[in-house]
Specification:
Keywords: Hydrolase. The chain is α+β, with helices and mostly antiparallel strands and 388 residues long. 33% of the residues lie in helices and 28% in strands. The chain has helices spanning 2-13, 19-31, 67-74, 117-135, 141-145, 153-161, 209-228, 233-248, 323-326, 340-347, 356-368; strands at 35-41, 47-50, 61-62, 78-82, 87-96, 99-109, 166-168, 172-179, 187-193, 197-205, 254-262, 267-273, 277-282, 285-288, 308-311, 317-321, 377-384. Helix 7 (209-228) packs antiparallel against helix 8 (233-248).
Length: 388
């Protein structure tokens, strides 16, 4: 374990842009590695992009058709033998608290490879993931590696607003995804977990382009400000409502659902202020969870919001979708939320919650046929485990 400690210290002391160099040197010296490559998942969760000084120098690999993608999808190390080269390549997922960042690939001589080394290398990947998140405050290196194409300005704002794409705790695991990933403008999600509660919000700002992104940024930060001031859920909605109305005077508004989970009991406090909707899978059965719909944030001055309650049980899966999901229509003019969304959720029942949003949105694209998305599409999936 001494060599692991020395590498951890070197990573913490490294400049933000040199993390991969430190890991590469350590793996070559300690494990005899001949090649080390770090790839980050792109915003669309379709490809893995190489981290390199000059972006786009190395061709990306597909998540759904590559050894690296297999490690990324399964979240388990995947070993590829090269008998002719007398070498093996170990692909290791780089993940932090359930948020899947990418894959580290290590090529080493076959006589140096041993199954006993893989846990050590996986530990290095976990440390690397932590350091990447810290380093992103000071360098664009890892952010640039995540984009397979240029983001619109609105999409840049929305992705930077997110707390991450996934989160895992002993009591729950959640994941979310936005489409079109490189041109999203009004949809967003946010969460915060304390020792006793999880607060989750799903937001849909009206309009398009930069105006929608500015509107959503205002609403999300107003709710964060209220939450961090210790206000209850209904008051968080009310404060955000006032902030949006003060800026737009009713000309623009934000639809949002706010949820607050008690981690000990599974009791959920909810405020439904607009269009995001929720479905629950319990013991294989999918049902819509209708909430009392109240006015969107900022539509009128001094709107009063009230909370309602329901309970989640261990094993429950919740799915929240924006109107760009459930209102989408097939070529036969049937809405996706009527029957197809429940079928998609059932078909994805064996996937972890981090992969469910992408699976549902891929099914949505197939459902629409040749018709492209004409609105933002957001899906958040949460699995509830509860406390013993």
């Amino acid at each position: 374990m001494d060599r692991l400690t020395s590498v951890e210290r070197a990573l913490r002391a490294a400049t933000p842009n040199a993390l991969l160099d430190v890991v590469t040197v350590a793996l070559m010296e300690q494990y005899g590695a001949s090649r080390v490559e770090l790839r980050m998942a792109d915003y669309g969760m379709r490809s893995l992009q190489a981290v390199e000084t000059v972006p786009f120098t190395t061709e990306p690999v597909l998540i759904h058709d590559s050894p690296q993608g297999r490690a990324f999808g399964s979240q388990e190390p995947f070993v590829v033998d090269d008998p002719d080269g007398h070498a093996v390549t170990v692909h290791l997922p780089v993940t932090i608290r359930g948020d899947r960042l990418g894959v580290l690939s290590v090529t080493m001589p076959e006589d140096r490879h041993a199954d006993a080394l893989i846990p050590e290398m996986q530990h290095l990947c976990d440390v690397l993931g932590h350091e990447i998140l810290v380093a992103e405050r000071d360098t664009d290196l890892y952010v640039l590696a995540r984009r397979a194409a240029r983001l619109t300005l609105a999409a840049e704002m929305q992705w930077q607003l997110l707390p991450g794409r996934a989160c895992t705790r002993p009591e729950f695991s959640l994941g979310g995804h936005l489409e079109p990933a490189y041109a999203i403008f009004g949809d967003n999600f946010d969460w915060s977990a304390s020792a006793d509660h999880l607060t989750l919000t799903v937001t849909n700002g009206m309009g398009a382009g930069i105006e929608a992104a500015l509107l959503t940024n205002l609403a999300v930060n107003a709710m964060r400000n209220a939450r961090r001031a210790g206000l209850g859920l209904a008051d968080q909605a009310a404060l955000a409502d006032q902030a949006v109305y003060a800026q737009y005077r009713g000309a623009a508004y934000v639809s949002v659902v706010l949820l607050r989970f008690d981690l000990a009991t599974g009791d959920v406090e909810a405020v439904d202020a607009g269009s995001p909707r929720m479905w629950r899978m319990r013991e294989g059965e999918v049902d819509a969870l209708p909430l009392e719909e109240q006015l969107p944030l900022g539509m009128f001055e001094d709107t009063t919001y009230t909370s309602e309650h329901f309970r989640v049980l261990p094993g429950d899966r919740l799915l929240i979708g924006s109107d760009g999901v459930y209102e989408s229509v097939s070529p036969e003019a049937e809405k996706y939320g009527e029957r197809a969304l429940a079928r998609s959720l059932t078909a994805a029942r064996l996937l972890p919650p981090q992969q469910v949003p992408g699976a549902v949105l891929r099914e949505l694209a197939t459902y629409r046929g040749s018709t492209p998305l004409d609105d933002d599409a957001l899906v958040v999936c949460l699995d509830w485990y509860g406390r013993d």
